[in-house]
Design a protein that fits this description.
Length: 579
């Protein structure tokens, strides 16, 4: 791909979509301010209280365009089987014809923005380039915060570096004419009819996960839906942990947690909150970079108590989407300790009878550098070495607070068989338990059987692999209350995880994994006692037997590409559970 092909592509797209104007984004502050001004003028952005929240704005999306749309998201591979049962598939020719029809003349009266971006630190060998063409200035403003957008990326592309081509139009925001299409073999993304989050900010889920996971398999690395956090002990030793939790299941919160009071001298360093690209390093460890430069985080539930670092980074230079506002134009959402909503996320006078003030998937967009726990490691070319990988989700029962895999292959099985309650991050029913392997169900750009085989292949390639754990912050008691305090107190679990990585702390071996001893997790300062912790880490044999019978049926759905060793391991664990 070259300079020529970027310009030729932009010309082709312009001929198809017929915009009034073409704007090549340079990513400058001046350009951003100009974009904001235009958005303010036409009402797409609303100024928030500039005294309390300088440079903060509110966007109200179309009420029918508030989350990712998994049923309208497709992976268009030449061979249907390559997309796997985990993806919607359409023939590439058919998909292109459908999209070209939608794109014909769709930018009439609008500006076409060319958004060159780099996923990952610009000078990193692990980084990847892309160009998003969009007719949404809101998308451009968000892409500037979320990616390294502008001239530096364009220069590299014009010098001949390969790039992913993403074409996006909001169309008429008609849910009946909305598609998110991926052509991994062409390194191309086509998105139409939505202006929201992962549907529209194409660098994020479309490029950095669906397309990148495809490339990662071919090239021997991993593109994952994981946060990256550094945990520094009082002795100054830092361990980096990557964790895959499904959407709205706690990645942003874990990535920037504030240690509990008892953890004097401990520090948390945030490298990433959503996406992690991992490569085998020269020292035989896995090294991770965060391809993103900003956070598109869940607002509801974020408070001084749960996530003070997020509250601090949201005081300035942030875009809020679908939050409520107070009478003095400050952003507001459910869970916030101060303020009262005057206007709901749709701009109506707030009426508690009428439901929530903010949308459950209301979000903030903010530069990573504004987070008090930001570390310059997030901009280092080689990334950070990963000591442990966590898989987690929302499970009201069964899954213990923490459990360690017996080896890499078992860790892959833990990831492949995880399940979680659905959340408002995607359209559809909320609170239904579904399998979400590696938190990648909506994002894996190819057949899960091939994906697990790829994960398993690291055992032969990487001598010092991270240890793998499964965690669950969301166990509930009979009254429906969370049994574990979560948030900052999750550091207590991370401490145990790090001890295990260092070969310390004892475990109890069970058929499904290694759990801590009852006094293994530090509870100092918590109201919880060892008896309560025990109920969080005890393995319910018959419950797990039932789980494994479901797991086996689920895994069978991926044959013939399901790795035989994985099926055997599941079988073996089930036998241990029944003996
Ligand atoms: P995406 O951006 O959609 O990928 O979500 P995420 O995984 O980053 O989730 P996030 O950290 O934004 O958390 C989602 C919701 O879960 C928020 O309302 C949080 O307040 C809540 N949450 C996060 N961590 C915990 C926890 O440890 N315990 C409990 N009970 N809730 C949590
Ligand atoms: C998620 O849903 O996992 C997100 C938000 O991080 S979105 O960008 O909409 O995908
Ligand atoms: Mn996410």
């Amino acid at each position: 791909m070259s300079h020529q092909s970027l310009h030729a592509w932009v010309e082709d797209v312009a001929a198809l979509t017929r915009p009034n104007k073409i704007h090549w984004c340079d990513g400058s502050e001046q350009e951003y301010q100009q974009m904001v001004q235009e958005l303010l003028n036409d009402g797409a952005l609303i100024e928030l209280n500039q005294d309390s929240h300088p440079n903060c704005y509110l966007h109200r999306s179309d009420p029918q365009d508030v989350a990712r749309v998994e049923h309208l998201t497709f992976v268009c591979t030449n061979n249907k089987a390559d997309a796997g049962p985990n993806n919607n598939w359409m023939d590439p020719k058919e998909a292109h014809a459908l999209m070209d029809d939608l794109y014909a003349g769709c930018m009439e009266g609008r500006t076409l923005y060319v958004v060159p971006y780099c996923m990952g630190p610009v000078e990193s060998p692990y980084s990847r380039l892309g160009v998003e063409i969009t007719d949404s200035p809101y998308v451009v403003a968000n892409m500037r915060v979320m990616t390294r957008m502008g001239q530096a990326a364009r220069d590299k592309i014009e010098a001949g570096a390969p790039f992913v081509k993403g074409l996006h139009s909001i169309g008429e925001l008609d849910p009946e004419r909305r598609y998110i299409m991926h052509f991994p073999e062409e390194l191309t993304i086509n998105s139409f009819g939505s202006g929201y989050g992962g549907n529209a900010l194409l660098g994020k889920k479309c490029h950095a996960l669906r397309i990148a996971s495809w490339q990662a398999r071919q090239e021997g690395w991993l593109a994952e839906h994981m946060l990256i956090v550094g945990v520094e002990s009082p002795e100054g030793e830092v361990h980096y942990i990557a964790a895959a939790f499904p959407s709205a299941c706690g990645k942003t919160n874990l990535a920037m947690l504030v240690p509990p009071e008892e953890y004097k001298g401990w520090k948390i360093w945030t490298v990433g909150d959503d996406i992690c690209w991992m490569h085998p390093g020269p020292d035989g460890r896995l090294w991770a970079v965060n391809p993103e430069a900003g956070y598109f985080g869940v607002a509801p539930g974020t408070s001084e108590k749960t996530n003070p670092n997020a509250m601090a980074m949201l005081q300035r230079d942030a875009i809020f989407t679908n939050v409520a506002v107070t009478s003095d134009q400050q952003p507001w959402w459910e869970g916030m300790q101060d303020g009262t909503p005057a206007t709901d996320w749709r701009g109506r006078d707030f009426d508690a009878e009428n439901g929530k003030a903010s949308h459950p998937n209301a979000r903030f967009t903010v530069s990573a550098k504004q987070c008090p726990s930001y570390t310059e490691k997030a901009d280092e070319a080689q990334g950070v070495p990963i000591s442990a990988i966590l898989f987690g989700g929302r499970r009201a029962g069964l899954v213990p607070l923490v459990m360690e895999a017996k080896d890499w292959a078992h860790g892959v099985l833990l990831g492949a068989t995880m399940a979680s309650e659905t959340t408002a991050a995607a359209t559809g029913q909320v609170g239904v338990v579904r399998r979400d392997p590696m938190a990648m169900k909506p994002f894996c750009g190819y057949h899960y059987g091939d994906y697990w085989a790829h994960w398993l292949s690291f055992a032969d390639k990487v001598p010092n692999l991270p240890k793998v754990f499964q965690v669950n912050w969301f166990r509930k008691d009979g009254d429906g209350n969370f049994m574990w305090p979560g948030f900052g107190d999750n550091l207590r679990v991370l401490e145990w995880v790090i001890q295990r990585c260092k070969g310390e702390a004892e475990v109890v071996s069970t058929p499904v994994g290694l759990v801590p001893k009852a006094d293994g997790v530090n509870l100092t300062g918590l109201e919880m006692n060892q008896e309560q912790l025990k109920s969080l880490i005890t393995i319910d044999q018959s419950g797990w037997q039932h789980e494994f019978s479901e797991i086996k049926t689920y895994l069978d759905g991926f044959s013939p590409r399901l790795p035989a060793s994985m099926a055997n391991l599941a079988e073996n664990i089930e036998q241990q559970l029944s003996s």
